[in-house]
C-alpha cells in the first residue's frame, strides 16, 4: 500500500503489531454494528480479521501523527468492475466528531482518482448511521438510491443500504472549484 499523509494522519499498511489497538476498538459495541459486523469477542477473532485485511492489500491503517496509534481503517475495495471501487472506513469512538474521517477520505479519494485512475467510487451506509451519512455528503458523493434489505447483518437481520457514488469528472470539478476558491 502506498503511504498517504494528511495534516493529522498517516495512512499506511496494517501489521500484526496493530493487533492490540485493532482489538481495542473492534470490541466496542458502538463500532461494528454501524458497519454491519459484530463487535469482536476475542483477540483471536481480531487477529484473523486483521490478517485478512493485511492479505487483501485494500485497507490502510489510520495512524494519528501525535502518537502513531492505530485509530481506524479505511479501504478501497474491489467490486465487480475494474474501474470502480467501494470506499469504507471505521474509526475509534474517541475520535468521532473531529473531522478525522473526512480528512482520511479526502486523501484516499485523491489517490483513487489520480493514481489508480478509477472512474467511480461507491460508498454505502445503513439508515441509522447518520454519522457516516454526514461524512459521505460532506465529501461530495451523490445519492444514488436505496438497496432494500441489501445486507444480512451478523445478527441475521436484513438491512437496507443507502448508496452514493462519485465519478472522476465530479471529483475533478470539485478540485477545480476548491482551487478557485483558494485564489
What does this molecule look like?
- The protein is of the alpha+beta class and 183 residues long.
- It has a single domain, classed as Aminopeptidase (3-Layer(aba) Sandwich).
- The chain contains 6 helices and 8 strands, in the order ββαααβββαβαββα.
- An 8-stranded mixed sheet has the order 1-2-3-4-5-6-8-7, sandwiched between helices.
- Helix 4 (100-114) links the parallel strand 5 and strand 6 (120-125).
- Helix 1 (19-26) crosses helix 3 (43-56).
- The longest helix is centred in the middle third of the chain and has 15 residues, at 100-114.
Summarize the structure.
The chain has helices at 19-26, 32-35, 43-56, 100-114, 130-138, 168-182; strands at 4-5, 9-12, 59-64, 70-78, 84-91, 120-125, 142-152, 158-167. With 183 residues, the chain is an alpha+beta fold. An eight-stranded mixed beta sheet has the order 1-2-3-4-5-6-8-7, with helices on both faces.
Short key terms for the protein model shown above:
single chain; 183 residues; alpha+beta; Aminopeptidase; eight-stranded mixed sheet; 6 helices; 31% strand
Count of structural domains: 1
Radius of gyration: 16 Å
Number of strands: 8
Q: How much helix is in the residues?
A: 25-40%
Looking at the structure, the CATH topology is Aminopeptidase
Query: What characteristic shape results from the CA principal axes?
Result: globular
Separation of termini?
33 Å
The CATH architecture term is 3-Layer(aba) Sandwich
Going by helix content, strand content and strand pairing, the class is alpha+beta
Top CATH class: Alpha Beta
User: What is the CATH homologous superfamily assignment?
Assistant: Gcn5-related N-acetyltransferase (GNAT)
Q: In sequence order, what are the helices and strands, one letter per element?
A: EEHHHEEEHEHEEH
Query: Strands of the largest sheet, in order across it?
Result: 1-2-3-4-5-6-8-7
Count of discrete alpha- or pi-helical segments spanning 4 or more residues: 6
Largest sheet: 8 strands, mixed
Strand content: 25-35%
Uncertain runs with pLDDT below 50, 5 residues or more? none
Mean pLDDT: 94
Amino acid at each position: 500500500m502506498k503511504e498517504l499523509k494528511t495534516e493529522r494522519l498517516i495512512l499506511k499498511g496494517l501489521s500484526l503489531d496493530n493487533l492490540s489497538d485493532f482489538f481495542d476498538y473492534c470490541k466496542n459495541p458502538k463500532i461494528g454494528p454501524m458497519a454491519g459486523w459484530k463487535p469482536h469477542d476475542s483477540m483471536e477473532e481480531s487477529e484473523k480479521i486483521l490478517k485478512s485485511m493485511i492479505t487483501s492489500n485494500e485497507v490502510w491503517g489510520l495512524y494519528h501523527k501525535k502518537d502513531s496509534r492505530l485509530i481506524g481503517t479505511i479501504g478501497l475495495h474491489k467490486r465487480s468492475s475494474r474501474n470502480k471501487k467501494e470506499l469504507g472506513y471505521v474509526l475509534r469512538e474517541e475520535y468521532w466528531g473531529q473531522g478525522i474521517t473526512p480528512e482520511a477520505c479526502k486523501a484516499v479519494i485523491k489517490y483513487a482518482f489520480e493514481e489508480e485512475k478509477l472512474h467511480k467510487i461507491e460508498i454505502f451506509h445503513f439508515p441509522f448511521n447518520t454519522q457516516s451519512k454526514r461524512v459521505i455528503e460532506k465529501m461530495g458523493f451523490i445519492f444514488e438510491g436505496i438497496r432494500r434489505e441489501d445486507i444480512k447483518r451478523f445478527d441475521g437481520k436484513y438491512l437496507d443500504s443507502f448508496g452514493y457514488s462519485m465519478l472522476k469528472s465530479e471529483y475533478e470539478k470539485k478540485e477545480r472549484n476548491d482551487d478557485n476558491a483558494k485564489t
